[in-house]
Amino acid sequence: MQYKNNDNKSFMLAVLFGIILGFLCLLLLTLIMAFFLSALKLSGNISGILAIVILSISAFICGFSAAKKLKSKVLIIGAVAGTLFYLTVAVVSAAVTKNGFTGVFLLRLVISFLTAEIGAFLSTVKRSKSKFI
Asked: Is 37 exposed, middle or buried (CB count within 10 Å of its CB: 0-12, 13-18, 19+)?
């Protein structure tokens, strides 16, 4: 019974680790996006597309780092980390903007889920020791 409790604890710690790294990546990329949008005086139309790209990169980092931390059950941990990551982002976004949930909520959830899964899967890929010429 003790083994199962430690296994669940390490699973949740890995998910939390991935979510924290995902949020740090999200914060950093959002600050960079805001700087370039204001410095280059780009139109606001591109910000929606950039927001989805930034969310995807952050979810990828979230799933990748969570799976690297646990090194087992990578697809499950990628799904859990990506879903919890996006749900947390959606709740914070809804609280800050006071707009509630929009029609693209499900699309962004699927994108976040899939990119976290891809990140978790790619965390298991071993690099070849052979050198390419």
From this structure: middle
